[in-house]
Write a structure and sequence with these properties.
By secondary structure, the protein is an alpha/beta fold. 34% of the residues lie in helices and 14% in strands. It folds into two domains: 4-215 and 380-394, Glycogen Phosphorylase B (Rossmann fold); 236-366, Rossmann fold (3-Layer(aba) Sandwich). It has a six-stranded parallel beta sheet with strand order 2-1-3-4-5-6, with helices on both faces. The chain has a six-stranded parallel beta sheet with strand order 9-8-7-10-11-12, with helices on both faces. It is globular. It starts with a strand and ends with a helix.
């Protein structure tokens, strides 16, 4: 019997010009590795972004009724505020769940690339669908860190899924993640600290259910070392690469630059504003960078990104939160020196980036160290995922 893999991915099949982050990078990788999978993405399900139309095609409602109402998608995903994105999550949940229910649960496995944007885990699990979920971020931990400013611990907030009176956008955080943990046969997480946090928050989750799978450098295929960049060899080039969003902590790097003294350098900030508060954050960064040798290069991909990484003398990841750090793996593969804050993906020289003096000191010290050899971390994620899906499909309850 042929096994059908239904891969739901809210950020799949978008052009590389869209700064959708790690979820898109993983989805692109898996779609390349497994072209025979059935991909349930906004594009494959009939969603249209704002450059094509101002609405979504009607989709069948769960239970068989067809919706006659157009569901407007007024902005690109990266331009949405919290309430607009929550609405998209519910629309995508409905569309993917409807599509999955057309398949025999005995003949398919559901692989989800999302939590809040994922299908209705409880409905599918109760109907016997075998679900494997890929976690790029612990939504509850992220919410407590950036929306609650750490005032509530994730272990406490995770129990809020018991409250049925929460507004719907909070149910996407607390109820949806709890359902994902309960009904998924396997949880694929990118780092051991993230796994430990999940196990602390969901005490009934068996340890064996969570699988740590570092992704490695998913851009290793992109290009060999390309040609010249416009930065002379005598200039110490510092690079950071991420979307421009407050949790990425790029302003901490700019604060550190004020403590450099006569140190000759150039900072390349690679990334575009994305998701909630992105444009406001970019304006803040540009104000802080005024008068400093800083360039904002926007969203970079492919050969251009590879060229910049090979030219960079130092890669800095000042992010307040990273579940793994795909861009760090790319920088390691290019042979960059690495400085990172103490997030889950920390590697190289780990510094408290909240301390601008300590960060400046670490950067000056890095300039005196030889450039390391490239570290290839391609991993075997595709093969391991294939094994997991077959394992789940063949297991008996």
């Amino acid at each position: 019997m042929k096994l059908t893999v239904l891969y739901t991915a809210a950020h799949a099949q978008f052009p590389d010009t869209e700064p959708l982050g790690g979820g898109k990078a993983v989805a692109d990788y898996l779609c390349r590795e497994f072209p025979d999978w059935t991909v349930l993405s906004p594009r494959s399900l009939g969603f249209r972004d704002s450059s094509e139309t101002r609405g979504l095609r009607s989709v069948e409602a769960v239970g068989g009724r067809r919706s006659r109402r157009s569901a407007p998608l007024r902005n690109a995903l990266t331009e949405m505020n919290e309430w607009q994105y929550a609405r998209f999550c519910r629309q995508f949940e409905q569309a993917t769940t409807t599509a999955i229910l057309k398949h025999d649960p005995a003949r398919c496995v559901v692989l989800t690339n999302d939590i809040s944007e994922g299908p209705d885990f409880a409905m599918l699990g109760a109907r016997g669908y075998r679900i494997v979920s890929i976690w790029h971020v612990d939504v509850v931990e992220y919410f407590t860190k950036f929306y609650l400013r750490g005032w509530v611990r994730p272990e406490t907030a995770a129990r809020w899924n018991r409250f049925r009176w929460l507004p719907d956008w909070l149910k996407l955080v607390f109820h949806k993640q709890a359902d994902c943990v309960r009904w998924s046969r396997r949880l694929i997480v990118p780092s051991a600290p993230m796994r430990e946090m999940i196990l602390q928050c969901y005490r009934n989750c068996p340890t064996a259910k969570t699988v740590v799978m570092p992704w490695g450098n998913l851009a290793a295929h992109a290009a060999a070392r390309p040609a010249v960049t416009p930065y002379p060899d005598g200039e110490f080039v510092i690079m950071t690469l991420s979307r421009l969003s407050p949790e990425k902590g790029i302003e901490r790097l700019l604060y550190a630059l004020r403590h450099f003294g006569t140190f000759h350098y150039r900072l390349l900030i690679c990334g575009a504003p994305a998701y909630m508060k992105g444009h406001r954050y970019e304006r803040k960064l540009r104000r802080l960078a005024a008068g400093l040798p800083v360039e904002f290069l926007g969203h970079v991909t492919g050969a251009r990104k590879a060229a910049l990484l090979h030219r960079a003398d130092l890669f800095v990841s000042p992010s307040r939160h990273e579940s793994y750090g795909l861009t760090i793996a790319e920088a390691e593969a290019a042979g960059c020196r690495i400085i990172s804050h103490g997030h889950y993906g920390a590697t190289g020289t780990v510094v408290d980036c909240d301390d601008p003096v300590a960060l400046a000191k670490a950067i000056r010290a890095a300039a005196q160290t030889p450039r390391p050899s490239p570290v290839t971390t391609t991993g075997h994620a595709a093969a391991r995922i294939k094994e997991l899906l077959l394992e789940v499909a063949s297991a008996t309850e």
